[in-house]
Specification:
The chain is mainly α. The protein has a single domain, classed as Winged helix-like DNA-binding domain superfamily/Winged helix DNA-binding domain (Arc Repressor Mutant, subunit A). The chain is built from seven helices and two strands. It has a two-stranded antiparallel sheet with strand order 1-2. It starts with a helix and ends in a 9-residue tail after the last helix. This is Rrf2 family protein. It comes from Isoptericola halotolerans. Keywords: DNA-binding.
Length: 152
């Protein structure tokens, strides 16, 4: 699985909104600056997030963006799906839509298992977790293994 720059920036901007100490809107410029994200690219990402109900925008002098839902009700998976679509896909298809035959037939099980594991992590981590500087214990356990940090 590859996390796109778009998904990375979307999660970072969303966490920045979740970490805002008051409920006043945050401008796209402030979000871009806080996370060192290209402003124009972030504007397009924020439109996607707004369309999917992750953020809401407010116009005017004090305008900007706020989370449309409580930070503990928005998962990393929600944000990634909002900007990139399905979490795991093979050749632009969902694993469950694929059909393999012959000696490669069991490969389908690998792709579906991959999707299940990606979901298991991204659907349990909320913006509130990240804004609070933590992740659920199950995720923390996965990264406590030194080998998790190495690229073989």
């Amino acid at each position: 699985m590859r996390i796109s720059a778009k998904a990375d920036y979307a999660v970072r901007a969303s966490v920045e909104l979740a970490a805002a100490t008051d409920s006043s809107p945050v401008s796209a410029e402030a979000l871009a600056s806080a996370q060192d994200v290209p402003h124009r690219f972030l504007e397009a990402i924020l439109r996607d997030l707004r369309r999917e109900g992750i953020v809401a925008s407010r116009r005017g002098a004090g305008g900007g963006y706020v989370l449309a839902r409580a930070a503990d009700a928005v998962t990393v998976a929600d944000v990634v799906r909002a900007v990139d679509g399905p979490l795991v896909y093979v050749r632009d298809q969902r694993p469950s839509d694929l059909d393999y035959s012959g000696s490669a037939a069991s490969l389908l099980h690998v792709w579906v298992a991959l999707r299940a594991n990606v979901r298991a992590v991204l659907e349990q981590v909320t913006l509130a977790d990240l804004a609070g500087g933590s992740v659920p214990d199950e995720v923390r356990a996965l990264v406590s293994d030194d080998e998790a940090w190495e690229n073989p």
